[in-house]
Fold these 4 entries.
Entry 1:
Amino acid sequence: MTATPIDALLTRRSTKMLTGPAPSDAELAQILQAGMSAPDHGAMRPWRYVLIRGEAIGRLADMALDAVKRSGDTRMTPEKEKATREWLAQVPLVIAVAQKIDHDNTKIPEHEQLLATGASVMNLLNAIHMSGYAAFWSTGLGTYVEEVQDKLGLDALDHRFLGFLAVGKLSMELPPLQRPDYRQFVSEWNGL
């Protein structure tokens, strides 16, 4: 039986087990274009993406890990730093994710803009999977350290930084993932 788009959605998963190659430029353009199809109240298009590839990933690791250490975050132990650097050395593409804050907007609530950005990211994740790649949305690597987002060109006054998508091919076959039954999360209201 041929896999359907629904089958693809049901088999998408997040994984850090990534290696090269990254999507080609043509594949990446299609993946990023899929992000433009997200539901977006007011057509604000609040999502912003910064592509980080090749040797720039090592520079990202240096910059972000140094900023995290300077921030005083005690969770960045030498072991965690080493593991993070080793992981990033295998990742061929990183996409920084942010929500553009429209300070002049009085019509669309900011939480709706944040939801639109999340929907855009989900479209990217689905398109990555449907294109034969895998991804992991990480809020580590200094997501909550203002210096990191500023150095990525996402001024903290104008953007809410939401993390990084690590993108590549699966580095190993993963066992099927058992998902919870949707009925545990759904109720029906009948108006009575």
Entry 2:
Amino acid sequence: MSLSKRIPMFVLRLLALGASVSATLIMLTSHDTAQVFNIKFEAKYSNSPTFKYFVLINAIASGYTFILMFFPSKSSYGHLILVLDLIMGLLLDSSVSACIAIGQLGKKGNNHAGWLPICGQVPKFCDHITGALVSGFVAAIIYFFILLYSIYNLFTLKA
């Protein structure tokens, strides 16, 4: 792959790395405490399996992206990297989607199930979750562009 085709891919991977690392760190630092009726409770990311999944997938995406930034571009593993990029994009999409569902539940509650919203009591926690979700969504979008660029390069090399 020529230098003119490697630079955009490097920049896209660098942006994806920044977004996924940011999402991981913001989610890891999300915690807040509240006191309701003299009962103190703590909201943190580790209380929800969905948020743990989000952190795990973003950490894996960060490591994968970091490794690929130093991977030789003239390798014969282009098809494998394309498939792994697709899988990473799908995993990022699934983790963001799951967290948006739980975040919506935390923000609005569910009257039918009797679940009350918690963001009024722990706004700092909800703000961190929102920031992590935005960063994770940006990482997923960048991975979409990585996929498009990789597919474009694959077809232009064969033509």
Entry 3:
Amino acid sequence: MAPSTFFHIIFSVFVFCLCSSFSDAAYPSNRVSISSPSHLPKLQAEKLIRELNLFPKSSINTAAGNASVSAAPKNIVEKQFSLNPLGDPGLSVQEFGHHAGYYRLPHTQAARMFYLFFESRKSKSEPVVIWLTGGPGCGSEVALFYENGPFHIADNMSLIWNDYGWDKVSNLLFVDQPTGTGFSYTTNEDDVRHDEKGVSNDLYDFLQAFFTEHPQYAKNDFYITGESYAGHYIPAFAARVDQGNKAKEGIRINLKGFAIGNGLTNPEIQYKAYTEYALNMRLIQQSDYDKINNLIPTCEQTIRTCESDGGDACLSSYATCNDIFNSIMQIAGDINYYDIRKKCEGNLCYDFSNMERFLNQKSVKDALGVGNIEFVSCSSTVYEAMLMDWMRNLEVGIPALLEDGIRVLIYAGEYDLICNWLGNSRWVHAMEWSGKKEFGAARTIPFTVDGAEAGQMKSHGPLTFLKVHDAGHMVPMDQPKASLQMLESWMQGKLPLTRTEGSTYPN
């Protein structure tokens, strides 16, 4: 492979969907070697991870020396914990149920999935919401501490309550997945996932075990949420839950809906939207737009070949299509592609380093029950393994879920370039389902918070699209109050529905 192609893949590894980046360029087979030597592309990828001020010591979590968890006889090993956050959340820490645990994934050789569960601050009868962080390969703790979890990390390494944590309106689950990210680990390279089938089966197995362990939550409404590369994870996971319910596999999961924030879901449509978004936001000029658009037909063709042939065709498509994004960035310069209102200062675009410092403290590890595992904030090996999944279209499974009455919320911060609102809006409008015409004809109306417009939205039946004002890629971080109201209103069926004249449909 030519050096320029290597560069394009490695650069794009960082600059698309979620807070990290890493990859060994093209990965030639369906196997990854946990012990493989570092090559030049991986060294470049590690440099890109450092742009977030993250320094994972390993490319994947193998949990060397953590025999105590590995030898545990139960499928789930869980403990209640307290990290003594500062401030007054309205109740004492002792009244909250905060749990951390490991689940032994049954269809693997040695994989253990780590999760954190926070009971609702309001009522245990609130919905159960699971959050999936993207990457692919970043631990869920990125969202927990910087977006919608119960706590934020102060500079002195203490925790402070998040006034807009999603546990205020739900029982909230964070999962480190796919295997090898965060505190999740394996000692067998065959357990590393390469596609959505493996990812969604693992998550479904985990849910079955979780609700067996916590039967009091099994009948609660259940929602799947996440952002970025979770635009791939979420539709596949939702379809797997729906399939399991219909086949009466194990415990019935009361799936009511799923929400994707600034996601990568339909690459063919979303990559085509890059140039128009960049032109509209004055990142490029008309002459740049015309020139870069010449790359789009080849990108479209390689995506179709990826869908039909898979394998190396998907790697080729990944490299080809990311030329579009790279060309825009060469012109735009040092903008933060997660939030184009901001610039990256030197090599630093965001600073999430406190997360690594906090989670690698012995006292925190002891509280969470993870033994002596090193926290792997973002796994380059996991990212690398999922590269052939990247250009797949995960929108194709959503129409069937809509027809089953499962609510779908697609939301996007307006200043994100990487998974921009325009591309997301276009695939939502292009999706073929029974309500397509009515959704397209629906009026766009304000989404208001405290009487002020916080976004623009449109709905028909179970489908809602929401563009969030004054937010980039990570909406719960940039607009915490609006994101909490969005979640609560959506789960309650109270996000205003826009109706076309004469149409009728249920909430």
Entry 4:
Amino acid sequence: MAESTPASDAAPDAAPDAAVVGEQAPAGVAISALHKAYGSNEVLKGISMTVDPGEVVCLVGASGSGKSTLLRCVNRLEEPNAGTITVADHVASDPDVDLDAMRREIGMVFQQFNLFPHLSVLENCTITPRRVLKQSKADADGEAMAQLRRVGLEELADRRPDQLSGGQQQRVAIARALTMRPRLMLFDEPTSALDPETVGDVLAIMRQLAEAGMTMIVVTHEMTFAREVADRVVFMDQGHVVEAGPAAQVIGNPQQPRTQDFLRRVLDPTHVDLDV
């Protein structure tokens, strides 16, 4: 379906105010000696790291290095085999943790948009606040419209997902997560399924969230975004943290040979070393 409203095609220029991060303070994350295996395949091999409240940490590395699994363990979409994860006041790795209470403070955006195709954009953004937070329709609609306004899609509230571009759908997914006023946002390669022309709109929204003080853990291959927005970059390989530090250091001057090799391939994909 053709787009007729220019405002719907581009992310807003103005950064959101601090209210976008919710009325509660941003949440920190602490991970210690985390292990996760699928049968004999050990995906996470003793991961330890922290994310301070309001900090943006980008996880980078080759496919299969354990980045997405780590993210899913934080939200307990995957059950860790060993180790501890603490999100704010919740011990996420505790089998008895109140998952509903913990997840109310965590927003997650996936590679795929996971929008309900039979619901409008507005309905996609209000269904969880109404069912989980028991908000009235008026309150849920008001919050949803505020978040859609932040991502530049207020005028598309009545459309269905299949009437939107991929970038617009991902921005709706971000707005939907923000309607719960999370203290922590998790992004699992949110631009990997997008056309190159729409990637920038989604990254602009994420940049604004970072500037507003949201705690964020981002799995990404967007090295420019990681360099410019992340407070720290964590390079993972084969289930281990190989190198971690300030973004300018890890991306601009990596110390470990495996990190150097990965970044050389990502930043200069046409360069191939061949043994002849």
